Amino acid sequence: MAHAYIVETARTAGGRRGGALRDWHPANLGAEVLNALVARSGIDGAVIDDVIVGCVSQGGEQSFAFGRNCVLASNLPQSVPAVTIDRQCGSSQQAVQFAAQAVMSGTQDVVVAMGVESMTRVPMGSNVSLYAKAGLGEGPFSDRIEARYGTKNFSQFIGAEMVAQKHGFTRAELDAYALESHRRATAARDGGAFDAEIIPLAIDGGMHTRDEGIRDDATLDGISSVKLLDPDGMISAANASQICDGAAGVLVVSEAALKKYKLTPKARIVNLTVTAGDPVIMLEEPLPATDRALERAGMKIDDIDLFEVNEAFAPIPMAWAKHTGADPAKLNVNGGAIALGHPLGASGARLMTTLVHSLHARGQRYGLQTMCEGGGIANVTIIEAL
C-alpha cells in the first residue's frame, strides 16, 4: 500500500477573542501558514497539487471560496488550487485525512492540509444566526430531523453535560482537569515546547509568538468560582475550550515526492478513521471511533505513546481516557484547548502539529489524535514519527 508522509507543520499562536490577532484577516492568517510550510520545507510552492482548508464559520471574511482566498493572499502562485471543507471541529483533521487519501491513492503527490478560524472577526454561529435574524428559512435542522430525534436543539453544551453525567464525573473533577491543562500548557510554553511550531506574526507592539489563553496564575478556587452555563449542570467557561483565533497546517506528500524533492519526513500516517453516532449526546463519538481505529490498525491502546484528544469540554478527554484505559500521563501532555484555545476549524491541524513535535521531542514513535465534532462525528488519525 502507498504511504502518506508529513514533512512539515506550522501554526500560529492562539489569540484570545478580541486579542492579539483581532486585526488579522483570516485569509491572511491562512496565507502565513502556507508561506511557512513552503519556506520550512524548501519546496517550490508551484508543485502543490491542492490546498484543503478546514473552516467552520464560513461566512463574512471566511466565505466565498475561503480556502482559495488563503492561497491568493499567500506567496503561492495562482496556479495552486484550494477547497474549503466543514466537518465542524474536526474540519482540519479531516483535511489531513483527505490529503493523505489523495496521496495514498496516487492521484496527487503534494497536498497542504490546514485550518483557519478567526472567532473574533467571524463569531461562532454567525453564518447561521444572520439568516435567522433575517427570517430566512427554518435553520439547519429540517422537520424530518426533528421527527427522527424529537428535537431541533442539537447543542454541544447539552452534549457535554450528558457525557459528564453518563460517565459519573463531578464538577470538582472537571475543574481539576482544567487546572491541569493550564499547568501543562504553562510548562510546555516555558520549556520551549511550542517554539518550533509557532509562526511569529506581526502585531501592534511587536510579534505574536505565545498562546494568549494560557493562565499562568490559574487556581482551582478560581476555576471553581466561574459561573456554570447551566445552574443544574457541571460545565463552565473555565472547564471548556476557549474561543480562539488561529491557523495551522500540515504538508502531506507521497514517497515519490520525498525522493523527487529531497524531503525529510517527520511522520508517516498509519491509520485514518472517521465514524458517526448519536447526534444528541454528540460529543461521545471519539470513544468508539478510537476502538475502531485501533482495531483497523492492528494496535492496542498501550502501543500508542502520546494522545491528543481535543479538550472541547473537560468531560470529553476524561471520558475517552476512562473508556480506553489510556495512561493520563500520555494524554495532552502539553495542555489542550482549555488552556490553548479551540479555533474550531483550525484545531485539527493544530493538534497534529503539536503531536508531531511532541513525539520527536520525546523520542517516541506512535501518536493518536481524535476529537468530538458537531453532529456526533469523530475523526481518529494515528501517526508514526520518523
From TrEMBL:
Residues 263-384 form the Thiolase C-terminal domain. Gene3D superfamilies: 3.40.47.10. Its EC number is 2.3.1.16. Keywords: Acyltransferase, Plasmid, Transferase. GO terms for molecular function: acetyl-CoA C-acyltransferase activity. PROSITE patterns: THIOLASE_2. Pfam families: Thiolase_C, Thiolase_N. Residues 5-255 form the Thiolase N-terminal domain. The active site is at residues 89, 342, 372. It is an enzyme of class 2 (transferase). Belongs to the thiolase-like superfamily. Thiolase family. This is Steroid 3-ketoacyl-CoA thiolase. The lineage of its organism: Bacteria, Pseudomonadati, Pseudomonadota, Alphaproteobacteria, Rhodobacterales. The gene is fadA5.
